[in-house]
């Protein structure tokens, strides 16, 4: 059975966010709401598109159940999007006080 | 250096205020992303995989030490403490938050920098030779013309909505194109006058470009008197604006139009348009030229003894780290006693073109201490200290080494040009940066690296070719094969006076094999070259692909 999640980029930061239930968004893919039917996928995508202040260009991605039932993206692109660049950034790790730092989870 | 006049400053400040208002309306929900997108793209603000990305122009690559310090400060305050220098003399910040962008731009405006026209279908940052003003082989300083083009093209109302983006490059060195003019929409080459008393003029090339349809530019006009530069550029842009295809994004670049019409018909159109406007207000008077040229006059060089022999002796120094650095990263300067120092942003295992705030600050300080406070960004994604007294080279080398800025690999195969690829880019098919870092880690032996001689290696993560893979001596293109990263290997490209588009060597290789394949290609060259003087590119052109195919795929071409 295929599973999907609705995702998009948060307007305030451009960070990937994932749709939960009740029109809430999370920065953690695994906390997104898994969708199992094409009908629900379409209606949630429409709902996401209506939230244009919070989210830019929402779309759906395919996910799968990985170890311990955790949701994980199917494509490499979405894996990198969810987890960040695969390379070591040249700078020292940014501190939590840096304005650009990305919260691990937040309802955008 | 060129300093903003009142008009420049007002224009940039007004743009910051306007964009601040647009951003606040986006954040409040008053405008949608669809409405905001064209506005942010006019201001160099993209959306990548993880965050917004802001592209800031560095006109003709020239920075003052204060500007570089500001770029460092901005990266620390509003980003993650580093920036990415691109192949078109821009810097990109990968993590700005939308609400911070107006303040970031206001900071940049305070040092006469901006992000206007760094994306969208307009005339982009005009790029140039990174050795402009200091090279021995230069006929005229191209930055003067780049600045004149910048003033003409900035917010030019007729060319704000072209069929597609438009890139111009200018070189002032007739025999050594270091600005890749043949792969630009318009390439401008300074050439000597046709008679002894005629001043220099330009050869104007048109229709070059990479992307999905790579094309080498063709000559539109052999000799253009210099006073007509702007009117001639305007004529080309008018013909493009009128006939360029707006119905298909993939066929919208000027190279497609030039290809469809043929260069003769295209240049006839340009000449006809030009005849209408050539003697108008755009003529460049000697006074106007001198006014702009005054900003690019030489700094106060000291009268020094020639230092070429001294530099040669340093290159052979027993201190091999210094010797290798001088041999590959130090170039002759037009003034006796001075050298040009190239700073590689391609340290082993590091993303090509990235520099941390600390590194930028150190380079700014070194420019102040040892140079005249000037730094240049090279299109190969490196930095240049253009005016170093040769006697300071050992000290400078030691100070650069402390922050991993002394990699002795300029022009060598690990001086890799790479686009951001799938680690950042929304359009990517595959990663570029990890391939670059793996190759640089693989070629550990510096004697081997230097023995290989000058080889360019370019990597793009998709067909858009931001990493110029078509014009790398070795080019690597990332593709997606059923969800797996594969890489096409190309050989034989060159962006210079002998420009050529590389050709695909054979079937694409999976990520796990591509680094071995590059090592294999290099070894085939070393084993078969006539002598160490035969460059890699010359060997490929002479021997063809057969020896490489045989070694790599185990089959001769005609088997
Ligand atoms: C958000 C990231 C980027 C996006 C969305 C992007 C997009 C594109 C696209 C769509 C093209 C193809 C244009 C065409 O063929 O008509 C292109 C070409 C190009 N880009 Fe990028 N790019 C990005 C980052 C970069 C970077 C980081 C560099 C420099 C390292 C760069 C330099 C270039 C160059 C030199 C070309 C090819 C030359 C030409 O225009 O023909 N781009 N880019
Ligand atoms: S070549 Fe492709 S992957 Fe690389 S930066 Fe350009 S658009 Fe992105």
TrEMBL record, chain A:
Region labeled Disordered — which residues?
88-108
Bias (Low complexity): 91-108
InterPro entries referenced in this protein's UniProt entry, alphabetically: DUF2849 (IPR021270)
Pfam families xrefs: DUF2849
Protein name per Swiss-Prot or TrEMBL:
DUF2849 domain-containing protein
Lineage, please? Answer: Bacteria, Pseudomonadati, Myxococcota, Polyangia, Nannocystales
Automatic annotation (TrEMBL), chain B:
Q: Tell me if Nucleotidyltransferase is a UniProt keyword of this record.
A: no
For this UniProt record, the keywords arranged alphabetically read as follows: 4Fe-4S, Iron, Iron-sulfur, Metal-binding, Oxidoreductase
Record-annotated Nitrite/sulphite reductase 4Fe-4S domain positions: 119-276, 413-552
Keyword Metal-binding in record: yes
Which cofactor(s) are needed, names only? [4Fe-4S] cluster; siroheme
The catalytic activity of this protein is classed by the Enzyme Commission as 1.8.7.1
Q: What class of enzyme is it?
A: oxidoreductase
Which GO annotations describe the biological process of this protein? sulfate assimilation
Annotated InterPro entries: NiRdtase/SiRdtase_haem-b_fer, Nit/Sulf_reduc_fer-like_dom_sf, NO2/SO3_Rdtase_4Fe4S_dom, NO2/SO3_Rdtase_4Fe4S_prot, NO2/SO3_Rdtase_4Fe4S_sf
Q: Name one GO molecular function term.
A: heme binding
Query: What residue stretches are annotated with the Nitrite/Sulfite reductase ferredoxin-like domain?
Result: 52-110, 351-402
Q: Name one GO cellular component term.
A: sulfite reductase complex (NADPH)
The name this protein goes by in its record: Sulfite reductase
